[in-house]
Amino acid sequence: MREIDAKRVTETVSELLRDACYRLPADALGALRAALQGEQAPACRGVLAGLIENAEIAAAGAIPLCQDTGMAVVFLELGQDLHVLGGDLEEAVQEGTRRAYGEGYLRTSVVARPFSARTNTRDNTPAVIHTTIVPGERLKITALSKGFGSENMSRLAMLTPAAGRQGVVDFVVRCVDEAGANPCPPVIVGVGIGGTAEKCMLLAKRALLRGVGLPHPDPEVAGLEADLLTRVNDLGIGAMGYGGRVTALAVHCEVFPTHIASLPVAVNLQCHSVRHREAVL
Amino acid sequence: MERGPMRPRRLALPLSAAVVETLHAGDELLLTGPVLVARDAAHKRMAEALGRGEPLPVDLAGQAIYFMGPTPARPGRPIGSAGPTSSYRMDAYTPALLAEGLKATIGKGPRSPEVKEALKRFRAVYLGAIGGAGALLSRCIKEVAVVAYDDLGPEALRRIVVEDFPVTVINDIHGGDLYDQGRLRYRRADPASPVAPETNTTPSP
């Protein structure tokens, strides 16, 4: 049984969230550069060049890439032979979130009582935590700062089995079309297919954590991703919705078995500012 | 209609009625001057004040409002990251503020039919800033002061002074809409697509 101090979890979560908010990952930056190469529309070219310059300014000055530094979503993969000492694991994650937002000059955007008072919690807690128990004696932490311009465009459909592949394609394309300029395109489209309602949405969220544009290892799923990307970019929305060829940088699908009565499909959109980092303790 | 290569047009704030007349969807502008900053919570308070027949904490005549809630400023800087937030959440409040003389709103994403009608009626424009470019846009912000609702933190009503702040005209007073025009121009249904071709109209849920 390996042991780890909860303080290390706090420090790691704090560092991961801060770094994610200041520095655009290389894969996202590469995808923006490729989009600029492929875009003809002058207004969208201007936007894409602006986003690339923004990433450079943010990294150089430790200025958040976006003023919406998001709600923290933390995925924990906890090895079953690891023992966390010196504190509550979830509280260690919350303390890491508190430090990142307080000391890192990040905006605190979380409000309590969403349906009434909407009082800012002042430290961006609580983070949303998803824990899975896995074999081994390590703890993998993935921290995502999720902005809500894109999060607000999330959709779930419980399609009938008869809808099939075409039903999935139509729903995903319609979600991106209706979201239009709101999620700050170019977007990364996270798609979950299967499971139960909540499992499906979590698949869509996890799909956003994949390297931008890396195809799914299963060729059939990768083919679906490629078709969806073509269809989405045929919508003509373009960067920031100004009209252009690049509406999405990538479509990532994750798939899970489902019930004989259903075909769940979830869409979770992510703007180009795909702010996640991971560490293994 | 291709307008060809063009330079962004430099404009001083506040915008005059005569200048607003000349703006068209798709025009790229660089704004210099004072801008008010408000988002959801400050809009709600202004609407409540108007509802009670009370004066607003600032005179909106001729002004521009930027929908934005910044990150905290690092020491020595006027402001943190400062990009636009989604405008549709302010749609319920905007027409009443246009009636108070507001000349421009700055944000990102489409406005409601009611707002677009009010823009024509009150001769005002809706301008788009680059969403997700908060670090870049922060460099165009030279001064910041909270003018009301300080308790709202990042949502307080602020006045900033901008210099060469880049925006694109989304909705003009003539009914032009860049989002509609841009999408129409670049939308395509490719018959060679491996996905079954269909019309551009999306099926109902």
* Overall pLDDT of chain B: 90
The share of residues in extended strands of chain A comes to: 25-35%
Order of helices and strands of chain B: EHEHEHEHEHEEH
Annotated CATH architecture of chain B: Alpha-Beta Barrel
Q: Structural class, judged by helices and strands of chain A?
A: alpha/beta
Which strands sit side by side, in order, in the main sheet of chain A? 6-2-7-12
Overall pLDDT of chain A, averaged? Answer: 97
Number of domains of chain A: 2
Name the CATH superfamily classification of chain B: Fe-S hydro-lyase, tartrate dehydratase beta-type, catalytic domain
Based on secondary structure, the structural category of chain B is alpha/beta
Please give the radius of gyration of chain B in angstroms: 18 Å
| Silhouette of chain A | globular
User: Roughly how many Å is the radius of gyration of chain A?
Assistant: 19 Å
Q: How many discrete structural domains of chain B?
A: 1
* Total count of strands of chain A: 12
Strand order of the largest sheet of chain B: 2-3-4-5-7
Question: Unreliable runs of chain A, pLDDT <50, ≥5 residues?
Answer: none
Helix count of chain B, per DSSP? 6
Q: What kind of oligomer do you see?
A: heterodimer
